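Incident log entry.

Two folding requests arrived from the same account within the same minute. Monitoring flagged them as a possible duplicate submission, but the sequences differ. Recording both here for audit purposes.

Request one:
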Amino acid sequence: MRILSRAEELVLLAVWHLQEGAYGVAVRKYIIQSTGEEWSIGAIYVPLDRLAELGYLKAVHGAPTPERGGRSKRYYKLTEAGIKALRNTRKVQDSMWAGLPNPEFETK
């Protein structure tokens, strides 16, 4: 079982949330809004490419658009393998957190 990195997990979750509108720039914008942190474009496209290679995402080219000089956007869709990877990662995280005090109330 492969455990996703935090960046991979966030990218997969963003793609899942965005559904049909999941392309690189939209994924980056969603993650920035969700985390409140700035993410470089490379920090998004490297995991997107890796996750597609692993079969966790399927990449599809959209129709060329005039505003992009005739270039098409590459849209991403979460696969069953991607959902399974997210479930496995969440299961491991839940197991690691089990039995620990809530960090918000820890005063040591």
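Request two (distinct sequence, not a duplicate):
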Amino acid sequence: MHDAGSSWELPEDLRLLRETVRAFMAEKVRPAEQGIDPDAVALPPERLAPLQQEARRLGLWCVESPAEYGGAGLNLLGQAIVAEDASKCRMGLYFPACDAFGVDPPNIIFAGTSEQIERYGVPGIDGGKRAFVAISEASGGSDPARAIRTRAVRRGDRYVVNGAKMWVSGAAQADWGVLFARTGEAGRSGITAFIVDKAAPGMTMKPIAVIRSYSPCEVVFNDAEIPVENRLGEEGEGFALAGQWLVHSRVPYAAGCIGVAQQALDMAAAYAKEREVFRSKLAEKQAIQWMLADSEVELRAARLLTWQAAWHGDLGRDIKIEASVAKLAATETAGRVVDRCIQIFGGLGVAKELPLERWYRELRIKRIGEGPSEVHRMLIARELLR
């Protein structure tokens, strides 16, 4: 992949960061995936531990978490740079670098009290404690302000919660989570955020089988009790916290999709130069050349849109629309690119010997997760028509 143009380039420190991550992925992570189940969602502990030790040494540990709590504390553009190359492994779309760089706790926790951060955020960075975020419900995942029906009622020093959440990624593997429930009337001001322990009485989980390699969960609350001290912020502030988390997370989310698609394109281009059909190389066929060219052009555009969103975020600007543009462009582009690459590989493209078929399945979810493409189009159009 060539850098897109000379009118704008990454700062030197981020170029060095990108080179470090690329080398780590090529020399350490992708070799560690060899020989394991094509649909694995974790490396064997004996393979993962030395990778995590090396990542800590390189300063690549929990890159989205503040440095004061043990993370790398990268800005949004730095997170996007890491996310793009960390996705370039078989399980990279949902487990960047196979978790070699650790697993960041949801950034919402850093808006909590110092006690909440020390109890939940820091163990996630130091000890690998995992967390889930429960927003979506069967009543509508893309419109939480109106769709959330799970209700939390305060009774003395506790909240009693009843309701159900859907499509909660990582819930089965998590130690704690962030729950968004209704404490007031309809609308944004009636939603509150809570920290919930995995072992909370009255909370149960059921996996939902989907097309990707691991299942999200339905999380049900039946008179589950949450201590008042586990409330994040004040009552009614939950939607604002959710919006902050969702908007900024869309940037590395977009970058990860671009990274997988770029890896697929690099693989397809290399294969086209070697594969001979009808007495000439695939690379000599105009149909193949155009698929490769269209993919390169679209990826460059999506990458620059993602970097632009990150740059604006690092300047402290409101990036609600920029993040939607990046998420829409990256996920839609990545799906098209991987589809073309499978076509170039032919039958081999859908064989589990290569990661393309897994990427294809998981990218299909990426067009729905973090807000479906249609919602982002609506947000962008609304801004244009203001």
